[in-house]
Amino acid sequence: DAGVIQSPRHEVTEMGQEVTLRCKPISGHDYLFWYRQTMMRGLELLIYFNNNVPIDDSGMPEDRFSAKMPNASFSTLKIQPSEPRDSAVYFCASSLGVGNQPQHFGDGTRLSIL
Amino acid sequence: AQSVTQPDIHITVSEGASLELRCNYSYGATPYLFWYVQSPGQGLQLLLKYFSGDTLVQGIKGFEAEFKRSQSSFNLRKPSVHWSDAAEYFCAVASGGSYIPTFGRGTSLIVHP
Fold first, then answer.
1. pLDDT tens-digit map of B28-62
2. Any CB–CB contact under 8 A between A65 and chain B?
3. CA distance from start to end of chain A
4. Considering CB atoms only, which of A48, A100, A107 is closest to B43?
5. Any residues with CB less than 8 A from the CB of B107 and at least 6 apart, and which?
C-alpha cells in the first residue's frame, strides 16, 4: 500500500516567494496533520483536518501560512511570502481516527528559504 | 493539558549493549502511548503503541516498552542495540479532549561500533 506522499522532497527558494507543499494522505484516512520540524523547536503541529475540514489551526505561526484540503486525497500548505525563518522540514501525516490510532508520516519536504 | 518529556537529548551506546530511552508524561485521562523512530531524511515510523491490558508491549525491530502508571512513564527498551538503530526516537501521548497526540522533543541515539 502507498504511504503518505509529499512533494516536493526538497525546495529551495528566495525570500519573498510563494511556497506550496503538497500531501496525499493514505486512502481512507480521515485525519490529516501538518507538522514543522526544526532543531530549535522540535516537531510542531501546525494544523489538522478531519474529513477535509480544518479543526485546529492554532499552531500556524502567522497569517503567511495557510492550508487547504479540497478533497480527501489532497492537501496543501502554502507560505506567502516566505522568510528565511520558515526554513525547516515540513511533514504531513494521516490517520484513521485519533486516540488509539497511530499517525502515518510522509518523508517530509525540506524547505530552504534563502 | 497533556505534556511529554524525554529527558535525554542524546544517548550513546555501544553496539550490542542494552538500551533504555525514557519518556514521562502528564495527562488528565487514560493515555494512549506511542513510540516512533525517525531515520535521517525520513518521516516518523511507528515502533509500538499501548492502549490497555498488558503493560509490557512489543514492537517492531526488537523494541519493547513498559507502561508504569505510578511513575507516569513509558520507557522504550532493547536488549541488544544494532548500528542500524541509530536514529531519533519520539514518544507521543494522546489523551483527553481531542485525543490528538503530543510529541516529546525526541532522543537522538548514537551507536558506537
1. 667 899 999 999 999 999 999 998 888 999 999 99
2. no
3. 36
4. A107
5. B6, B8, B9, B10, B11, B21, B22, B88, B89
